[in-house]
Design a protein that fits this description.
Helix content is 0%, strand content 45%. The chain is mainly beta. The chain folds into two domains: 18-128, Immunoglobulins (Immunoglobulin-like); 131-455. The strands form five sheets. The protein has a ten-stranded mixed barrel. Strands 1-3-8-5-6 form a five-stranded antiparallel beta sheet, with no helix packed on it. The chain has a five-stranded mixed beta sheet with strand order 2-10-9-4-7, with no helix packed on it. A hairpin with a 2-residue loop joins strand 5 and strand 6 (72-73).
Length: 479
């Protein structure tokens, strides 16, 4: 008992508190949705306790910021003890109110801390943005979105985002920015035109996850993806799809009966021009053990030119159960990143799928690759799975650069560059332009006669012209 003594409070007004930051900043917050919670620490660097007489938001009537002070919710608190050589936490969340403003706007406030006759403060700053919100929306008539402010996909009533009904067209114009919340996406039985009036890569329409804090940059699996269902049509022009679980998935339906996907009469028909799909996957496996990638297809018709698919936890390009596929000057690359583990071949083509004891099969009309790059950091980046009795894969590769251990001569591939690095400018950071001396320079052939959209490279009207009648470069970008 003789050793006990009462802790003394520090009352010297010259002794100040420290803070873990002087400004707590929130990236863009969409109206009504709120954002992640952040915090700062109030630090007492002295050898005696300090009592905070009052701590509060400066704008007491504000509903933008919300505080939790030392474990207690509320935008003010009194008589808080900060122990000697210790700290307390102040957590801050933010929700911005609809302002009907198309451009981003700024909210600011201060947390004021009063003690020993002193007032210190930490500034709070948030960027707000009004948006068009699609809460489990079913589109039943032809619709064209506006692009004057972002669009946000939200699940409601069992509908994860937006559903385009059969016979209906949704037009999403150039320079539209779309954000998806967890597991949301666009599901289409009708027609989806994205970037339908775009002319070059400066007109790009973007889709990404709603979390804009730097921690979430290029983190896969933040939202679902685009689902082009049986019988649908889609046109994607200058579109960037990032941070999704599966990028674009064509040819599935609401049924789990995969055998119905072998019906060639209701194949989705999809065109991609200068599309980038990046940082996809989150460990999911498709039926039959195939791991979802950037572009996934069950028995569809796809035409793609000058497009790039890179970094996926599954195959960048997954073609299953037949179909009609032609790719011109596309780049498929996977080297992994901080957020993406590259463990599956870049390109996987299979004419069968197995579910338990059941095997469904369907032959390919063709799977044709012209002037394409299929490359990555694994020793094998090409997987061809075939049940002989079910019909062929009909894979053709002409003037492509691929990484594989397969005997490509026996497969009938023509004029390949095999197991030679394409020498990109900076693949790790998503720059797939070719370096000087790349083996892909002048190694392709002129495909403009069969696919006129190949006359320009990825950036279209502002990109490099391809030499008509002469050797094209391999990949999406002309050197």
């Amino acid at each position: 008992m003789n050793s006990c003594k009462k802790d003394q409070l520090l009352t010297d007004s010259s002794k100040l508190l420290l803070f873990s930051t002087d400004t707590l900043t929130f990236d863009t917050v969409f109206t009504t949705l709120g954002t992640t919670t952040k915090y700062f620490k109030i630090i007492n660097p002295h050898n005696q306790n300090i009592e905070i007489i009052d701590i509060h938001l400066k704008n007491a009537g504000s509903t933008t910021f919300r505080l939790n002070i030392d474990g207690v919710s509320g935008n003010s608190a009194q008589n808080i003890i900060v122990p000697a050589n210790d700290s307390i936490y102040v957590f801050v969340a933010v929700t911005v109110n609809p302002g009907g403003i198309d451009v981003p706007f700024i909210y600011s406030d201060d947390v004021e801390i009063n003690f020993n006759g002193n007032t210190q403060s930490v500034n709070l700053m948030a960027w707000g943005q009004d948006a068009y919100f699609h809460y489990g929306e079913i589109i039943t008539s032809n619709t064209t979105w506006l692009n004057n402010k972002p669009h946000v996909l939200v699940s409601k009533d069992g509908i994860p985002g937006v559903l385009v009904s059969s016979g209906v067209t949704l037009n999403i114009p150039k320079n539209t920015h779309i954000y998806g919340m967890n597991n949301t996406g666009i599901y289409c039985w009708g027609t989806l035109n994205m970037g339908y009036n775009a002319a070059s890569c400066s007109d790009t329409t973007t889709m990404e996850g709603i979390r804009l804090e730097s921690y979430y940059d290029n983190l896969p699996g933040q939202w679902g993806g685009i689902n082009m269902l049986r019988g649908s049509t889609g046109n994607f022009k200058y579109v960037s799809i990032n941070e999704s679980s599966y990028g674009i998935f064509t040819g599935s339906d609401t049924t789990s009966n995969v055998n119905l996907f072998t019906n060639n009469s209701n194949r989705p028909s999809i065109n991609l021009e200068s599309v980038i799909i990046s940082n996809t996957g989150f460990g999911q496996f498709a039926n039959g053990g195939f791991k979802f990638g950037g572009l996934n297809s069950f028995n569809s018709k796809i035409r793609a030119v000058n497009s790039v698919i890179y970094n996926s936890t599954g195959s960048n390009l997954l073609l299953i159960l037949g179909g009609d596929y032609k790719f011109y000057n596309c780049t498929f690359y996977n080297g992994g990143s901080v957020s993406v583990q590259h463990q599956t071949e870049v390109l996987l083509i299979s004419n069968f799928i197995q579910q338990g004891a059941f095997i469904d099969t369907n032959a390919f009309d063709n799977a044709e690759f012209n002037n394409c790059i299929v490359y990555g950091s694994l020793d094998e980046e090409l997987s061809l799975n075939k049940i002989d009795a079910s019909g062929g894969l009909n894979v053709q590769m002409n003037n492509c650069n691929i990484k594989t251990k397969l005997n490509t001569d026996s497969l009938g591939f023509v004029a390949l560059k095999k197991n030679i690095s394409p020498a990109f400018i900076d693949a790790y950071n998503g720059d797939f332009h070719l370096s000087a001396g790349s083996p892909c320079v002048d190694a392709g052939f002129d495909v403009s006669g069969v696919y006129p959209l190949s006359l320009k490279d990825f950036c279209g009207g502002t990109g490099s012209s391809r030499p008509i009648g002469a050797a094209f470069d391999i990949g999406a970008f002309e050197y």
